[in-house]
Here is the input.
Amino acid sequence: MVVTKAVAKKAPFSRRVVDHVTDELVNALSNGETYEFKPLFTKVFEALKLKNAVSGGEEMLRLRSYEKIIKLTSCGLVEKIGKTYRALEGIETASSAHRLARLDAVVLAAQNKTACAVVS
Here is the structure.
């Protein structure tokens, strides 16, 4: 006889912080231009330097930027053609402002649902 333990699934942890790298990638790509990675990274790096949001050095930021652009590509928000990247419709949904607004709406809906249950 095999006994298995029931494991409760935990909700995935969601960090509610601004992702400056993704935001700058979205800003750079949302103007409709097509970029190779090096000019795209240069544009993102300069924008982050202006915001004083560069941490970990240029090489670490290059790796994080590449990971983010690959994630955006796999999500279907960026199209990679050869060595160039181009934003697709809905790229704005990847920005921190959109993500945090969506999380706030979920929290507000949960609070309203709880308040309605208490009143009933």
Q: What stands out?
A: The radius of gyration is 19 Å. Residues 20-119 form a domain with the Arc Repressor Mutant, subunit A fold (CATH 1.10.10.10).
